[in-house]
Amino acid sequence: MDYLFKSVHKIDYDDESFVEVEMQPNFDNFVTELLTNINENVVNRAYEPSSQSTQVVTDIRNIFSFIEIEDIEPEEMMDRVKEYADDIAQRLFDKEKLKQEQIYRMGKNVKKGSLIQAAIKNEDNYEYLLAKVEHSAFVDDSDFSFKSGFSSEQKKIWKTCIFNCRIEDEDISIDEAKVYVSNSGKYWADDFLELKELSTDAQNTKRAFSAIASLLSRKVKKSAPGDYTVIRNTFVGYMKREQQLDYNEMISTILDDYQADSLSQDSLDELKNKLMELPDKRKFDRSFTVVPKEIRAKVRQLYKVNDGIEIKVNDFVQDIKHKISAEEDVVTGTKYIRIMTNNEDVYQQFR
Question: pTM for the full model?
Fold first, then answer.
């Protein structure tokens, strides 16, 4: 991996300034660790440029053009590249200042930090990294002086984007980008980078629930119908809440401590592994905001219990095995479905 260019700008909308910061000798190691952290982060989301002529995309294309294509002196090349990097930093400064003005009265603040940029060549692949990270002060133990630096801890990395760049002859294009935000930072992807999601939250919600429901139906419903009812109902409850969903965390929360009725531990482990593969196979993100209305129709379950009698479950049922249970008369062998009710009128009608 070669770093063709790198820079750091400290963004401070309070002081209405952004300044390029001198890079320390170990900065390459920090960026390498940062890239590893980003690439291993399962909650990245897939985007694409809204066009090849947006400001950030144009600046990045120009940076690669001067580095890889233009035949000019190295010093002049680096001056031109820095101009485009400064332009990107200026845009982030402007967007963060505007965002801060919008949210200030709500008692919120845009987190202050530094913008890291790096143009990277890895064999025949080209990438451009943009990362907003915490840039904080610390005391150097060697001379007890105040200095500043970065942390590669995930909690200190607030927003990132890796652009995949394609260079063919003298044509440079950017077709896709991988974006991570640690909180609700839509301005990062929408306003600053001018990207559009490959999968919207609504599409992610619909695809994720459909994929989960289909897998449970194929792998669990026939072999362990009781477990199927409980597990599917728990997924319904999880995805009926409007929330920022971490898919991997959801799977672990639901299945790690699940006490199965019929499923063996091996079958449960296999189910978990197959669920973890679904985002890649069924093309949805591992992190998105749930849109509950997208699964409303898919939640309903209809059970035929006898001639002319059906049970319809329209939503998540808390403690479903306690409220709807199966019983068998030990003398006659007759099977019954027992349903808890909180409706006195219905109860009286069946006494």
Answer: 0.71
